[in-house]
Amino acid sequence: MNPQQKEELRTLLANLTSKERKDLTRRAAASRAECQRDPKHPRSRWDVDRWSLQLLQDANHDEDAIGTVISVAKAKAVVRVNGEDIICELIKEVLEKQQASLAPGDQVRLESHGDGQRIISVLDRRTVLTRRDPHFKNRERAIVANIDVVAIVVSVVAPPLHVRIIDRYLAAIHKGGARGIIVVNKTDLHESDAALQEDLAQLAPYAEMGVGVFPVSNKTDRGIEAVRAELAGKTAVFVGHSGVGKSSLLNSLVPGSALAGDISEGYGRGKHTTTRANLVEAGDLRIVDTPGIREFAVEFDSVEEIAECFTEFNQVGRCKFSDCLHLEEPGCAVQEAVETGEIARVRYESYRRLVDELVS
Ligand SMILES: Nc1nc2c(ncn2[C@@H]2O[C@H](COP(=O)(O)OP(=O)(O)OP(=O)(O)O)[C@@H](O)[C@H]2O)c(=O)[nH]1
Ligand SMILES: [Mg+2]
Ligand SMILES: [Zn+2]
After folding, report:
1. Does the CB atom of residue 157 touch ligand 1 within 6 A?
2. In the structure, what pLDDT confidence band is assigned to residue 263 with cuts at 50, 70 and 90?
3. Fold of 128-289
4. Positions of CATH 3.40.50.300 in the chain
5. In the CATH scheme, what is the code of domain 310-359?
6. Confidence class of residue 180 from pLDDT cuts 50, 70 and 90?
7. How many whole angstroms separate alpha carbon 206 and alpha carbon 170?
């Protein structure tokens, strides 16, 4: 051992009780014996002190070796460890198997590598939001991990309200285990309150299903506090088409955050378009802003899996056939409920579209 190592061992031992020291010596001796069995092992010549130091370093390392992914770039990720952001590389195995799905919000285990740290594994996820990989069909890509709430951001007037994307997102959210809410932005652009109410009426089926609908404006601050209260103490993600105002909403909630994030000047049109998902933490808010997605597709294995995501289908009576897929079958309670208006027709049409995509 060099003098520096000796000094480090002395410092670390000073923090231990005599019982802990005895235990450490026992484990160091065992490790030494284990390695000596193989004379070619790089640690076969280590003595008990050197092993003691190694075991203590490993133990200390374990304590702060977990971090949260803030953003992911090619073969690299920004990871927050004890409040500090560090750029980490990924070991080969993570690169090959998990890079496509490593996402902001992921908890990762790190190890020292050269001057920095690198990601050696990704911990199990509590929840996830995935989409179908636009380049490889049948493959999933994680957008964000370990979120409680997915805020589907839509806009009125510019761009006009698109409700169809909502059902896709709600299905993906159900699949990944999070909870969905709808934020309707740019309500300041309506010429009259009647026009706004007309747009909001299209979202009534969601409110009835228990999905919260939050009309907001970043221009007038309308509804911003209600969104803040809804997201407080949770990890959330903003998703939706480009230009609906996700980054602006984040900026209303956490002033200055969009500047700190990854906002780039887009294609000469002076438009600030988000290019990379990024986790922002401020007070009791934890929000991931994501780039707008033109075509959001969900990867499903079966029609049953899609039907499961339309939770209101399970709340009407029983279908005649227990394996009913609610398509053309006779005695289908879901189709009947659509006729009576108990299930919103737009929701049923979304279901049919997802089924068509699966079989085509
Ligand atoms: N009138 C009005 N304009 C808004 C509001 N919120 C955002 N905008 C404008 O809408 C445009 C797009 O806003 P962004 O926040 O960049 O939209 P985004 O959803 O983050 O877009 P991407 O990053 O491309 O996905 C900007 O010009 C904003 O100034 C609002 O409440 N009212
Ligand atoms: Mg943005
Ligand atoms: Zn049915």
Report:
1. no
2. very low
3. Rossmann fold (3.40.50)
4. 128-289
5. 1.10.40.50
6. very high
7. 10
